[in-house]
Design goal:
Structural class: mainly beta
Radius of gyration: 15 Å
Number of helices: 2
Number of domains: 1
Largest sheet: 7 strands, antiparallel
CATH superfamily: Jelly Rolls
CATH class: Mainly Beta
Distance between the termini: 45 Å
Strand order of the largest sheet: 8-5-10-3-2-1-11
Length: 155
């Protein structure tokens, strides 16, 4: 283990934008190399169309099905499949099944702090009750991370 890598009390459970997220690895525990987040999202969930300037992401579908949008391409991604979302390319996704379980890998690490900062500490392991998403707060929170909201979620 590198001298700059620290052990941290993980996982870190949060409710973020009507999803449950568990941070399994963060920049502190991976020497900044990547972050790994398990996400549980309900049917119809879709983050706003956005683009990352600093991170590449991979979404691996553990259970359920999503429709992923990368640039101007849409693809159905099911259990055991993954989609690559490179930095600089607008993307989003929509959950097609009753629930989807995803693993989100961001490289380099650090973007997990966006979710933690905007989310709330989860008090139990479940998808939270739906609430309106504060899009202006999401836009403002993304600026320090080089993330820009470009449009609405997928319909």
């Amino acid at each position: 283990m590198s001298a700059t890598t620290t052990l941290r009390s993980l996982p870190h459970d949060i409710w973020f934008a009507n999803t449950f997220m568990r941070v399994l690895a963060d920049k502190a525990s991976t020497n900044g190399q990547f972050a790994l987040i398990e996400q549980r999202a309900p049917k119809g969930f879709s983050p706003p169309l956005h683009v990352h300037a600093n991170e590449d992401q991979l979404l691996f579908v553990v259970a359920g099905t999503i429709t992923a949008r990368r640039g101007d391409q849409d693809a159905e991604v099911g259990e055991g499949e993954a989609v690559w979302l490179p930095r600089g390319v607008p993307h989003t996704f929509r959950v097609e099944t009753d629930e989807a379980r995803l693993l989100e890998i961001s490289t380099p690490g650090g973007f997990e702090d966006f979710h933690i900062g905007l989310g709330t500490q989860a008090t139990e392991v479940r998808i939270p009750e739906p609430e309106p998403i504060d899009v202006p707060a999401m836009i403002a929170a993304g600026i320090p991370f080089g993330t820009e909201i470009l449009g609405p979620p997928m319909p």
